[in-house]
Amino acid sequence: MFTIEKNIDRLERGLSTYFLDAKEQNILKGKLKKNSYEVYFPYKDSEKNIFYISKEPEVILYEIVSKVPLRHQAILGSIFALNISKEMFGDILIINDKYYIYLLKHMQNYFESNFLKVGNTSITLIERDLSLLKDYEKSFNSLELVVSSERIDTIISSIIHTSRSQITKLFKNKEVIVNYDICKNSSYKLKENDIFSIKGHGKFKYSGILKNTKSGNFIVQVLKY
Q1: What is the C-alpha separation between 15 and 219, in angstroms, rounded?
Q2: Cα Rg of the chain, angstroms
């Protein structure tokens, strides 16, 4: 795994970083001077992005063609099985039953020579123009919840409609992830654009408070992927 320090070193040498997830991006932003870098977004809502100083990074977009449906987790697992670390590729997208992945260009030869199957299913890689998905926006189901606070346990309880003891168990079993890190603090107050997932219930993006109610509660918006 590439550390934040190694990515800073790359920037100082005039190179771009590798693909960074939301947590890594936030850490890196805190260590860099404001306006001293650019961020490369493969598409509008991309989660994994690349920091650079002057020259945009070289990235490839592949379509993964299969005769049978593929699962996101299966694609991810097959890539990791090739010892390709997560910093070398960007988001994996499933759009209208088509599968896409972003990859750093220097990985092209290895990827094309070795990524031949997802599980036991043979696949074909087709390189696509980066402009194909540049305007792609993820679709969400919008949830409007009435809650007493922005605490993550309160909001999760409103989403999955379960008891406080079950919510406590989720955190104890490390089944709640916030910004790509295990959430150990059930009283954590969600911030606008925080991304969180609940094992067995999906992945969500917190949009924030829409308005206050007369009873002193809040109406908040949560987007479900």
Answers
A1: 44
A2: 19
- Return the ∠ at Cα 164 (arms to 160 and 166), rounded to 5°: 65
Residue tagged 């031949």 (tokens):
116
Assign 26 a pLDDT band (cuts: 50, 70, 90): confident
Give the position of tokens 């750093």.
104
Q: Are 26 and 92 in contact (CB under 8 A)?
A: no
Backbone angles phi, psi at 27, to 5 degrees: -65, -45
Where is 11: in which H helix or E strand?
helix 4-12
Give the ranges where 32-135 is alpha helix by DSSP (H): 72-80, 108-114
pLDDT of residue 102: 98
Residue in this structure with the two tokens 């990515």, named with its chain if needed: 7
- pLDDT per residue as tens digits for the range 44-74: 889 899 999 999 999 999 999 999 999 999 9
Spell out the domains of the chain, with CATH numbers in brackets: 4-52 (no CATH), 59-133 (3.30.70.330), 141-224 (3.10.290.10)
Residue 2 has pLDDT above 80, yes or no: no
For range 193-215, the mean pLDDT: 94
Torsion of CA 15, 51, 18, 6, to 10 degrees: 70
Please report the sign of the dihedral spanned by the C-alpha atoms of residue 222, residue 177, residue 23, residue 225: negative
Residue 202 in tokens: 């999906």
Cβ contacts of 109 within 8 Å, gap of 6 or more: none
3-state secondary structure of 191: coil
8 Å CB contact between 126 and 65: yes
